[in-house]
Design a protein that fits this description.
Residues 6-58 form the HAMP domain. The chain is α/β, with parallel strands linked by helices. It has helices at 6-23, 38-99, 120-137, 154-169, 181-189, 203-219, and strands spanning 103-104, 109-115, 141-148, 173-177, 198-200. It contains six helices and five strands; from the N terminus they run ααββαβαβαβα. Strand 1 (103-104) and strand 2 form a beta hairpin.
Length: 220
């Protein structure tokens, strides 16, 4: 059998061990042979290849870590934004309820005092809150107090009439109070027909009138 000299077999074994370590995931594996022959050139080529593999792998791992951190930061930001939006929505709902409050006068009557200008958005809020509260409480009467509404135009009157009509369908009668002289003149001037709506000039008059009516009904 052939016997190869140690100067030939030893570097081959070193190269083999380095290749085994590299294939097993040890990217620091190097041959490290300093020879001026073909085996030395092969060892140097292996070491350069291993160095390139290690550099590229480290670079990919760094990019992956950076991307993972960016994804985690984006997810955290998304969750924070979602929480902020939820908080804003809760605050908006609270402000909406405060802008169109409904107060129970007794187990049959609700009072809705309106303050400030009524644009289309607030009119919709008034309608929604009024009908929801009537349905929830099964109230028989709703007093709409417009003392604090500076202007009653066609849009406002139409919106209030829709509340009246929808409330009637739910079995609730609406009384409109707080009609100041200038508001009454504006309503007449616009040709708005309040129809069968019960009206009173002040909230106190409306409440007193309604309580007397309820009392008479209970005594009948």
């Amino acid at each position: 059998s052939l016997v190869f000299p140690a100067w030939l077999t030893r570097p081959i074994k070193v190269l083999q061990r380095a290749a085994t370590r590299l294939s097993a995931g040890d990217l620091s594996a190097r041959v490290g042979l300093q020879r001026q022959d073909e085996l030395g050139a092969l060892a140097q080529s292996f070491d350069r290849m291993a160095q390139i593999i290690q550099y590229n792998t480290n670079d990919l791992e760094a990019q992956y870590a950076s991307a993972s951190a960016a994804r985690a930061a984006a997810e955290a930001a998304r969750c924070e934004i979602a929480e902020q939006l939820a908080t804003i929505e809760q605050q908006r709902a609270m402000i909406s309820e405060m802008s169109v409050p409904i107060l129970p006068l007794n187990d049959q009557t609700l009072v809705m005092p309106l303050v400030g200008a009524l644009d289309s958005t607030r009119i919709t809020q008034v309608q929604t809150r009024a009908l929801h509260s009537i349905e929830k409480s099964a109230a028989h009467y709703l007093i709409l107090d417009i003392t604090g509404v500076p202007v009653v135009d066609t849009q406002v009157a139409a919106g209030l009439m829709q509340v009246v009509q929808a409330a009637r369908i739910l079995g609730c009668e609406v009384m409109l109070v707080g009609i100041r002289p200038e508001v009454a003149q504006a309503v007449v001037g616009l040709g708005i027909d309040l129809g069968r709506i019960t009206t009173r000039s002040t909230l106190q008059d409306g409440v007193s009138s309604l309580l007397r009516r309820i009392y008479r009904q209970e005594m009948a």
